[in-house]
Structure formats: structure tokens, C-alpha cells
Amino acid sequence: MVLDYNLDSLDSVAQAVIKAVKHKVILFQGAMGAGKTTLIKALVKQLGSTDDVSSPTFSLVNTYQATNSDIFHFDLYRLNSIEEAYDFGIEDYLDSSNWVFIEWPDIILTLLPDNYHVISLEHIDSNKRQLTLK
């Protein structure tokens, strides 16, 4: 699935993504400022959470309560090694039946379950992004 969108259509894009995915582990790729956290905010909202969503850049993971499950939101930008991921128990999060959204996932690719999705975001211009769901 490939979608072009802007902030006005973000909620409908989030709905489309949730309907399209078959697995609850989703990796988010894109340059700094591409809109990864902004899209995750919309996804969390569409999953029924009223929690305040922010980037877990320093805490590594934020947990949000959704209608029927927890949502774990990771930002692994500051992770220096896979051992650091083991130290905070990332495998427990990945093995849960909850939603897991991971920004900057490259360092933990070997730990991922067999079934996950990748969302790539591209900054088209100041108002437009392109989402590719794999």
C-alpha cells in the first residue's frame, strides 16, 4: 500500500493502516522529521487510546492504554548495541500480543518475530508525506 497524505488526512490514513495490517509489530522507517511520531500519534488515537503520545527518545519506550490492549512505542535512535535492547527486555515486548511500534528499528532487526510490517515514510514537501506499507 502506498498513500500520499497531509495532516488533514492523517486520521483516515491511520484507519487505513490499521485495517490493512495483519500483524501488531510495525517498524517505522524514514528520515528525521519524516513524520514517524506524528503517524504513531494518529494510530494510537485510532486504536482507542486517549493517552498523550510523545516520542520516547530518552525513555526508549512509552506505553499507552488502548481499547483492548497496550501499545508499546519504541524510539531506538539512541540505542548503541543490541545488548542494550536485551537489557531492557525488548524480547518480552515483541513476544506480547500487544501493538508494538518501533522507530529506528535497524539495531534490533535480528530479534524481530517472523511476522511484522514496515512503514516507510518519505517527506515529499512541507505539507505532504508518502507512506509505504510492506
TrEMBL record:
UniProtKB keywords: ATP-binding, Cytoplasm, Magnesium, Metal-binding, Nucleotide-binding, tRNA processing
Database matches in InterPro entries: P-loop_NTPase, T6A_TsaE
Top-level taxonomic group: Bacteria
Name used for this protein in its record: tRNA threonylcarbamoyladenosine biosynthesis protein TsaE
Gene Ontology cellular component annotations, sorted alphabetically: cytoplasm
Compartmental location: Cytoplasm
GO biological process: tRNA threonylcarbamoyladenosine modification
Top-level taxonomy: Bacteria, Pseudomonadati, Bacteroidota, Flavobacteriia, Flavobacteriales
Gene3D superfamilies: P-loop containing nucleotide triphosphate hydrolases
GO molecular function terms noted in the UniProt entry: ATP binding; metal ion binding
Key word Magnesium present: yes
Major localization listed first in the record, in broad terms: cytoplasm
Family stated for the protein in its record: Belongs to the TsaE family.
